[in-house]
Amino acid sequence: MPSPSTALQRTTPRRASTAHRVQDLLAAARRVFSEHGYQGATTALIAQAAGVSEATVFTYFAGKRELCIQVITDWYGEISAELERDVPQLPGVHAKLAHVVRAHLVTLLADGSGLCALVLSEGRAAEPELAQVIADCKRRYTAPLMHALAEGQAQGLVRQDMPLRLLRDLVYGAMEHVLWDAITTLKRPRIDTTAEQLTELIWSAIAPRDASLSALMRLRDEVTQALRHAAAP
Q1: How far apart, in whole angstroms, are the C-alpha atoms of residue 185 and residue 194?
Q2: Torsion-angle region of residue 186: left (phi > 0), alpha (psi -120 to 50) or beta?
Q3: How distant, in Å, are the alpha carbons of 26, 69, 76, 118, 127 from that of 132?
Q4: d(CA 182, CA 41)
């Protein structure tokens, strides 16, 4: 009978190899889905991109749909983690909104329009399983900005006469139109300029109607946050 240490030496590399193979397949699937879309992608193309046989793909995944779900889930997980880390550190609602808008455009257009089209189109899929997965991903992804907007409403920095659901649709709906335009025209927008314009347009809609009071409260909020950061060890 092998000793416990020998058994560990035998299983650990195998597990590491399996995890590495799965990541290679997912990376290949992301490239293929980005280039060909869901309908044009095949497990054969994914296997070719990963440098393995098609049978190997089915060893780890049930099929193309499962691969697509995992690709989208991983993608949302990556960008959600970044927003969860960065947004709470920013001073003021306006700065948080500006960061989210720019990050959204940069992330979705980082690899061209392919992955953007995949995420947006599959997000509208009628399949209940996929629709629920993407709904859960979107809930986490939008949470940092929703928390900021809720705090802004409580502080009088964001309009209180509009429900958060409509504010969410305003922010992400406006960005989705810009992204679909980039997809259909194959023209990449000037991200910095577009992000600034979108931010100011959205802010003008969600700020309290007394613009001067809003500006003063926003300045107060940003100064308070900056002082806290400066005083932090």
Answers
A1: 16
A2: left
A3: 21, 11, 14, 16, 9
A4: 21
Long-range CB pairs of 59-64 (<8 Å, 24+ gap) are 60/18, 60/21, 60/22, 60/25, 61/25, 64/38
* pLDDT tens-digit map of 177-231: 888 787 778 777 788 899 999 999 999 999 987 755 556 666 677 777 677 766 6
For residue 99, the 8-state DSSP code is H
First-to-last alpha carbon distance for the chain, in angstroms, is: 55
Q: Domain 1-61 is in which class?
A: mainly alpha
> Which of 76, 104, 212 is closest to 168 using CA atoms?
104
Enter the tokens of residue 36: 């060909």
- CATH architecture of the region 64-231: Orthogonal Bundle (1.10)
CATH 1.10.10.60 domain extents, the chain: 1-61
**Side chain identity at 92, as an amino acid letter?**
G
